[in-house]
Amino acid sequence: MEHSNHLSKTEEIERLRSAYQLLTEREQNLRVLHSFALNLLQQHTLQDVVWAIVKHAIARLGFFDCVVYLIDEERQILVQAAAHGPKNPHEMDIANPITIPLGQGIVGTVAKTGVAEIISDTSQDPRYIVDDDFRYSEITVPILDGGRLIGVIDSEHPEKHFFTQQHLELLQTIAAMAVTKILHAQAVQRLHTYQKGLEEQIEEQTRDLKQHIVELRKSNQDLEGFAYAASHDLAEPLRTISSFLQLIQRKEKGLSSESLEYMDFAIGGVHRLKRLLDGLLVYARVGQKAVIQKLLDLNEIMHTVESNLSQLIKEKNASLYYDQLPTVQGDDSGLIQLFQNLIANAIKFHHKERNPEIRVTCVEEAYRYQFSFQDNGIGMEEIFFEKAFKLFGRLHTIQEYKGSGLGLALCKRVVEKHGGDIWLHSEVGIGTTVYFTLPKPEYQLPS
Ligand SMILES: Nc1ncnc2c1ncn2[C@@H]1O[C@H](COP(=O)(O)OP(=O)(O)OP(=O)(O)O)[C@@H](O)[C@H]1O
Ligand SMILES: [Mg+2]
User: Fold this and answer.
1) What are the boundaries of each domain within the chain?
2) For a Cys staple, 356 with which of 33, 162, 350, 430, CB 3.0–4.6 Å?
């Protein structure tokens, strides 16, 4: 009796000792989990999170080795993301990551099934793949987001029967703790890649655009050079034709009245051609001249135009009203031509039954000013809204209204040279409004 009592006491002590050992072990594990949780909070990149798993969790639990794999969904393979132990030759630097197809070996099986496994004797498991050395125990736990596989934590040990159910629960806890951090880091990484792609795309498009602008400028310059030379060179033979026609008219006696009339038509034609060439010359010059980067008070431009046109304004009983105008950056002679052509048109195409009234307004927008020149003239049909801005684009016969059809083409050229747009709106019998924009001085691009 006494003997058995003694035995049961020894047993009791032994039981208490192992219970105490178990408790100490659990307490240690809890400490590891606690410090891992704190450490995880500070990790933000994907690399830092997976390395925290091996360095701050598994390594501290005293496991022989550990590899964390992440799934590459596109290729359907697991890729080594971090490692601790003999499979981690260099600190945080995996030159040739191990890759495992889904379903292959123990790791591949766990990835496919989503069920954690402990292999107590790998020599008995045909799925075991020898990596750097044969190890008899293995524990493999999936990292899951709900049912979706994110990765796998895998550890091996040289001794048989090393891993316990407690180890399995520990690794599952670690996987559960890390998963949201991994998902977040992956989302941030995808966002960065996307952003970088977008930036590269924008950069490339800007480069292309700049190249196009250079080419366009070059071809515009060529064209302007040609127009300038052509109008200049044509003026000379025209002068010759005109003077010889006049000479024949004066010197040749006995020309029939019919012939004399034809001569007049011919001379008239030559004069008209000369005016067209002069206009073309002015048009070509606007293009050739660089926009002078000078601050211009548009109120002053308006005063100049008003005084240039004072005779016409008086003659036609026209009234000109305008807002306080802003200051822009540009070329004064170009802007004078712009304002003057628009006001001259508004007066020229006035309605027979009323005196011309012209209202000039300016609206401030975020990056630019929008101007409008409104008249109460004859107006035009919508099909001419674009044609009116074309070179030599006239909607009336020369008998009805004099002119070459250059004014609005010139206006368009001046506005575009300053980085703005021009368009018009009109109603037959009511009037026409020409709109254009000019950038604010701080947004004016260098010419
Ligand atoms: N304010 C307006 N009201 C009605 N029609 C207009 C007005 N401004 C222009 N147009 C029409 O648009 C055409 C083109 O105008 P544009 O100023 O280019 O030429 P133009 O006045 O005929 O000739 P130029 O200006 O070279 O003397 C005009 O011929 C006219 O038919
Ligand atoms: Mg005109």
Assistant:
1) 2-192, 291-447
2) 350
Q: What is the pLDDT of residue 385?
A: 95
Cα 115 to ligand 2 centroid, rounded to whole Å: 84
| pLDDT tens, position by position, 260-293 | 888 888 988 888 888 888 888 888 777 666 666 7
Q: Which stretches of the chain score pLDDT less than 50?
A: 1-2
Domain 2-192 in CATH: superfamily? Answer: GAF domain (3.30.450.40)
For the chain, the average pLDDT equals 89
pLDDT digits (tens, 9 = 90+) for 115-130: 999 999 999 999 998 8
Q: For residue 392, which ligand has an atom nearest its CA?
A: 1
**Pocket-testing residue among 274, 345, 381, ligand 1, by greatest number of atoms within 8 A of Cβ:** 345
For tokens 């951090």, name the residue. Answer: 181
Which of the ligands is closest to the CA of residue 402? Answer: 1
Q: Closest ligand 1 atom to the C-alpha of 406? A: 26
CATH number of the domain at 291-447, out of 3.90.850.10, 3.40.640.10, 3.30.565.10, 3.30.70.3190?
3.30.565.10
Q: How many residues does the chain have?
A: 447
